[in-house]
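SAMPLE LOG
Freezer: B-3
Tube label: C17
Construct: single chain, 54 aa
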Amino acid sequence: MPTYFSYTSEATDYLSSRDRRLGRAIAAVEETCGHILRETDEDLFSAVIHHIVG
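STRUCTURE (predicted):
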């Protein structure tokens, strides 16, 4: 079963305040999907490879 990292409202508010375009995207995602979650990869090696290749 996957685990998720949950962004706090403090984090999304900060990011939204730093970039207007990103702020609009965050607002649209939160309006459509609710709170923003990011699936985590518990295998550190796999996560590093995914981010290097991605």
